């Protein structure tokens, strides 16, 4: 009895012998690494040589094999996807179709590789139509990627089921990785390569061929920067330089737009790369509705097949520059993060511009070398055949006689190869003569044709024996010999090979290159908060309890002197106004306090609030000590642009000048502006340029005028020198600097709301530290002096009371009188109220205010007319 079973069982034999013990964490780590490398090399990252991921390469090769070229008719996309999936890419039809559609989108690809017919998506984020509705074929430039693929220029590998062969890389006649860019997310890494202009990239490649030692900077003379299919503008060049030199960078891309101030609109013509237009418009509208962007009344999308056109209509009076900056800050700029990561010999590498071009150039040299070797073999084979034909034509009678007397084709071929000797057979008829060794008495030649030559000669037609055919063969042979000589020169000389590459690149440039679409704009810095704030003149109010706010000057219309004014702030119980001053929202404010400290902030940092609002606590802006309050403010466009001195006076009559340079770096906690005695406080500050006369006024109505040169410049920590000699309990009310080109009068205001204008000439100059002259009578009616200012024609006065009333009046409404007089009423105060602070609005601000009032009035008239029209329509209905 026989059996197939083994005679004995050996433990560990069979499958059990293949089982190995392993730590699960080690196995999972290795398996994950294998998976990651599969994704990196097989799906997500492009090859540096042809710039394609496997899916794109397989789609193009499937189209090539199916004959769906640029010169064929369009083929259903579903057919192309099916052939690609069935033969080369078994990862699902949706992934293949998405890749096919992207290669057809002129807003995604700088030079589309697929010529699509139908809906392949839009910049509004609309998806492509289903693959059964669209058609496609290769674009002409895509054929340049596959050119010469049938000449053994690249390696092939088996497809997923070993039925077919597919290329591992395409010959790629141009640097497609840089030209069309690529993006992808792998495991633990990603790539994001921007597209570039074909002509510029080819010029840089030619530069590298001619100058192998060229630096990245040299190549950047040709490659200016990314060239996006949607155009737009690149902000600055530094980020581009960094990206090309390191392989990584962050490039700011800004929409192309026009600001039509006269028409009151902003027109967007080009969007940043990969920006969704519909979502952009929606986001802008949302911000307008939420109040984040002000000044926009309408947004229209007027885009058509000729290009993008988004019209943003502005409200009447809106500042186009501010609206533009708000749009730039949130919507019209995006960042393109460059990660120039590609596969080099199957391994991911971050590459510089030169490295990318060098790897492509190495690939192209290999392609041209392999193509030349292939063509040389073909040419040599053809030359060998032509040599046999020429030799046969020289001995045509013998060749014909040999073929005629052969028993079969094989015998004829063997005879031509010189392998067969036929005996003479006299019994055969003359019509079927055998090889007798002679023709017309001459001995037959002994042939030594090769097998290929013999095969070709036997297959020749009689028509090829004409003399014209012979001449054509000789011409062809000469041409083939020249080809062989040229190919051998290419293979023997690197310079000749590079010349071929260069010539082919320039031919492609001539055929397909176009102008740049993306421009460069100067980098003026990031959009700051200041860029988003409209420039307007404001009144800033500070209270004793450190509440602060700002209001537009235009809210306070000028009125005749002596009025009560209007509410300027809502004070909590026990609080009162400590100071009021006028500034521009973009001004730098130097806030001097009674403790001799100085703080710095931007005017727009002060919260804007209504007249009836209390304001917000200044502790959020300024770090005041207990009992510290603002007594003087110096405002300017830019502190660094001030040339001259800050002249300070204290309530005890001390004065000093300190150069502005000492105040360039002010800490958030403030710095010392002047040293004070224990019972002294800083009262007022003026900006002087070294040529001014100063007038110090006291609460008891005294004043003294002297030239600022009498006060030497000192450091911040100095106390200063005596400016005015005070009597009794008198204190300094303020200081005024005279600008002879603008100022005509000294304006004095008292706590009880009275004031006067006096000509400058009435104040004779004298030496400092004198008692001075009487300026105004500080009697029971007037009360103590609270402010002294120099004013000129067109100035307006802003006066604010302790209880928050504010009045604005032209200074020319205040009577001009002598020094030692009572003055006239400036502000009508309620019982128990007093003037807290005074500031001057210069003519420039008053003119702009009047223009703004006219615009607001016109806008109000337009709104009333619109409402009337609506009411009329309603009545008709």
Q: Main attributes?
A:
877 residues, 18 helices, alpha+beta, 23% strand, 4-stranded mixed β-sheet, disordered C terminus
Task: Walk me through the structure.
The structure is a single chain. This protein has 877 residues and is an alpha+beta fold. Helices cover 30% and strands 23% of the residues. A 4-stranded mixed sheet has the order 14-9-8-19. It has a 4-stranded antiparallel sheet with strand order 10-11-13-12, covered by helices on one side. A 4-stranded antiparallel sheet has the order 23-20-21-26, with no helix packed on it. Strand 20 and strand 21 form a beta hairpin. Helix 3 packs across helix 4 and helix 16 crosses helix 17. The protein is elongated, with a radius of gyration of 46 Å. The C terminus is likely disordered.
How would you summarize what this structure contains?
The protein has 18 helices and 43 strands. It is of the alpha+beta class and 877 residues long.
Strand content: 15-25%
Percent helix: 25-40%
Strand order of the largest sheet: 14-9-8-19
Shape: elongated
Helix-and-strand structural type = alpha+beta
Largest sheet: 4 strands, mixed
Mean pLDDT across all amino acids: 86
Topology, number of strands: 43
Task: Give the low-confidence spans.
Answer: 422-441, 870-877
The span between the termini is: 113 Å
Question: What's the Cα radius of gyration?
Answer: 46 Å
Output the number of helix runs: 18
Topology:
Blueprint: H1 24-44, H2 54-65, E1 75-76, H3 77-87, H4 93-104, E2 114-117, E3 135-138, H5 140-146, E4 156-158, E5 165-167, H6 176-180, E6 182-185, E7 190-193, H7 198-210, H8 216-219, E8 233-235, H9 238-246, E9 248-254, E10 256-260, E11 265-270, H10 277-289, E12 296-301, E13 310-314, H11 320-330, E14 333-339, E15 341-344, E16 347-350, H12 353-394, H13 396-404, H14 409-416, E17 438-439, E18 442-443, H15 451-458, H16 467-492, H17 494-512, E19 519-521, E20 537-543, E21 547-552, E22 566-567, E23 577-584, E24 588-593, E25 597-602, E26 616-617, E27 630-636, E28 645-650, E29 654-659, E30 671-672, E31 682-688, E32 693-698, E33 702-707, E34 721-722, E35 732-738, E36 745-750, E37 754-759, E38 773-774, E39 785-791, E40 796-801, E41 805-810, E42 824-825, E43 835-841, H18 843-876
Parallel strand pairs: 8-19
Antiparallel strand pairs: 1-3, 2-3, 4-5, 6-7, 8-9, 9-14, 10-11, 11-13, 12-13, 15-16, 17-18, 20-21, 20-23, 21-26, 22-41, 24-25, 24-27, 25-30, 28-29, 28-31, 29-34, 32-33, 32-35, 33-38, 36-37, 36-39, 37-42, 40-41, 40-43
Helix pairs in contact: 2-3, 3-4, 7-12, 7-17, 12-15, 12-16, 12-17, 13-14, 14-15, 16-17
């Amino acid at each position: 009895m026989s059996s197939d079973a083994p005679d004995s069982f050996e433990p560990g034999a069979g499958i059990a012998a293949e089982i190995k013990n392993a730590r699960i964490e080690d196995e999972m780590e290795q398996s994950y690494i294998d998976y990651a490398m599969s994704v990196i090399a097989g799906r997500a990252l492009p090859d540096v040589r042809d710039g394609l991921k496997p899916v794109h390469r397989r789609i193009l090769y499937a189209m090539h094999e199916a004959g769906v070229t640029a010169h064929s008719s369009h083929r259903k996309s579903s057919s192309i996807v099916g052939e690609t999936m069935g033969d080369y890419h078994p990862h699902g039809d949706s992934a293949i179709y998405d890749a096919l559609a992207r290669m057809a989108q002129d807003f995604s690809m700088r030079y589309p590789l697929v010529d699509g017919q139908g809906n392949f998506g839009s910049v509004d984020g609309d998806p492509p139509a289903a693959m059964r509705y669209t058609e496609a074929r290769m674009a002409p430039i895509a054929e340049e990627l596959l050119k010469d693929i049938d000449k053994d220029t690249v390696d092939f590998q088996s497809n997923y089921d070993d039925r077919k062969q597919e290329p591992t890389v395409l010959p790629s006649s141009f640097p497609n990785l840089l030209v069309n860019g690529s993006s992808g997310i792998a495991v633990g890494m990603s790539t994001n390569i921007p597209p570039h202009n074909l002509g510029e990239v080819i010029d840089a490649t030619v530069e590298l061929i001619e100058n192998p030692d060229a630096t990245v900077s040299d190549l950047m003379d040709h490659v200016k920067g990314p060239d996006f299919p949607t155009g737009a503008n690149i902000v600055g060049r530094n980020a581009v330089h960094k990206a090309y030199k390191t392989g990584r960078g962050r490039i700011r891309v800004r929409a192309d737009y026009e600001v039509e101030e006269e028409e009151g609109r902003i027109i967007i013509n080009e969007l940043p790369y990969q920006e969704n237009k519909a979502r952009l418009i929606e986001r802008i509208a949302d911000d307008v509705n939420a109040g984040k962007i002000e000044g926009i009344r309408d947004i229209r999308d007027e885009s058509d097949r000729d290009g993008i056109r988004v019209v943003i209509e502005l409200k009447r009076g809106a500042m186009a520059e501010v609206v533009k900056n708000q749009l730039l800050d949130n919507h019209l700029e995006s960042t393109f993060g460059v990660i120039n990561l590609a596969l080099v010999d199957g391994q991911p590498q971050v590459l510089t511009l030169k490295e990318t071009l060098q790897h492509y150039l190495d690939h192209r040299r290999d392609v041209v070398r392999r193509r030349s070797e292939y063509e040389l073999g073909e040419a040599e084979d053809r030359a060998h055949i032509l040599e046999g034909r020429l030799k046969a034509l020289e001995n045509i009678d013998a060749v014909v006689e040999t073929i005629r007397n052969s028993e079969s084709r094989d015998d004829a071929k063997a005879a031509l190869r010189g392998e067969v000797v036929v005996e003479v057979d006299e019994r055969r008829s003359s019509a079927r003569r055998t090889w007798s060794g002679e023709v017309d008495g001459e001995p037959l030649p002994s042939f030594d044709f090769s097998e290929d030559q013999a095969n070709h000669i036997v297959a020749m037609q009689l028509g090829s024996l004409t003399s014209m055919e012979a001449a054509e063969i000789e011409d062809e042979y000469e041409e083939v010999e020249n080809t062989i000589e040229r190919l051998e020169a290419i293979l023997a000389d690197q310079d000749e090979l590079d010349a071929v590459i260069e010539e082919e690149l320039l031919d492609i440039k001539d055929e397909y290159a176009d102008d740049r679409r993306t421009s460069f704009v100067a980098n003026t810095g990031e959009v700051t908060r200041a860029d988003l704030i409209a420039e307007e003149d404001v009144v800033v109010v500070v209270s004793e309890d450190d509440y602060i706010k700002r209001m537009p000057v235009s809210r306070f219309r000028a009125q005749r002197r002596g009025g009560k004014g209007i509410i300027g702030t809502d004070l909590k119980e026990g609080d009162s106004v400590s100071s009021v001053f006028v500034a521009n929202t973009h001004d730098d404010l130097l806030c001097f306090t009674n403790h001799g400290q100085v703080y710095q902030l931007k005017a727009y940092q002060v919260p804007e609030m209504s007249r009836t609002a209390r304001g917000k606590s200044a502790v959020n802006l300024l770090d005041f000590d207990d009992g510290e309050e603002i007594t003087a403010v110096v405002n300017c466009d830019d502190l660094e642009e001030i040339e001259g001195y800050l002249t300070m006076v204290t309530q005890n009559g001390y004065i000093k000048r300190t150069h502005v340079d000492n105040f360039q770096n002010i800490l958030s906690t403030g710095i010392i502006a002047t040293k004070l005695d224990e019972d002294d406080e800083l009262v007022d500050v003026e900006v002087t340029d070294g040529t001014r006369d100063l007038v110090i006024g006291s609460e008891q109505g005294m004043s003294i005028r002297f030239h600022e040169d009498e006060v030497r410049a000192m450091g911040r920590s100095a106390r200063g020198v005596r400016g005015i000699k005070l009597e009794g309990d008198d204190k300094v009310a303020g200081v005024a600097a005279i600008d002879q080109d603008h100022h005509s009068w000294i304006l004095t205001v008292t706590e009880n709301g009275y004031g006067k204008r006096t000509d400058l000439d009435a104040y004779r100059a004298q030496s400092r530290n004198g008692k001075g002259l009487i300026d105004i009578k500080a009697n029971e009616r007037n009360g103590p002096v609270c402010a002294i200012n120099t004013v000129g024609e067109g100035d307006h006065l802003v006066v604010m009371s302790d209880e928050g009333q504010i009045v604005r009046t032209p200074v020319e409404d205040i009577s001009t009188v002598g020094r030692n007089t009572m003055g006239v009423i400036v502000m009508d105060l309620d019982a128990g109220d007093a003037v807290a602070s005074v500031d001057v609005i210069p003519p420039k601000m008053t003119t702009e205010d009047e223009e703004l009032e006219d615009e607001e009035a016109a806008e109000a008239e337009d709104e009333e007319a619109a409402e009337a029209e609506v009411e009329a329509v309603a009545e008709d209905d």
